[in-house]
# Entry
Amino acid sequence: MTDLIDPVHFQDLSTRDPNDVCRRAGCRYDQAEDRYTVSVWNEDVNIFPHSMTIESAGGERQERHTYFHLFAVHYLLGAQAVNIADSWISEKEVPGGATFFRGPHRIPTDMVSNRFNNDIDAFSQRCITLGGEPIEMADAAYGFRITDRIPVAALYWQGDDDFPAECKLLYDRTITAHLAPDVIYALAVGVCRRLGSSA
# Structure
């Protein structure tokens, strides 16, 4: 589960002041167990810096959380105590994003558009099931609070004879204060996989 996470990041987290981490990231810390608990997309995730382990607080171990666990560690390290801007940007508007988010780092939103294949109602139901709040954009759009400081929106356009269905992710403008582009990519892949999953 932690294969994607360089041990140096756990080591870095283990040296941080838990009070500062909790203030910045809106998480909890249990000193007796040396455990941070952070809510990631409405699920509590436990992070143990010294043992370099991560587990879902509910005991569930699902593959779809791999990228979210990578994101969670970096979120605890990088989150800043800034208010959400309520202003959406695409990954291309992230500094350096126009060159970073292409090729191997292209956001795989086709996982979502292919999953629903022009079925707006099915897309909407999936988003509502996952706690999405409707947003007045595209043909259907929903916002998700991934953590206290990281909102993500999923937009869906129905296709026609000339253009296929399309999905796009947007991020609150403040995401650049918290995460580097490679971590934004990991977060985005996790979002696409969860939205595009039938589970």
Summary: The radius of gyration is 17 Å. The chain has eight helices and nine strands. The helical segments are 7-14, 18-25, 66-78, 97-100, 110-116, 120-129, 175-178, 181-196.
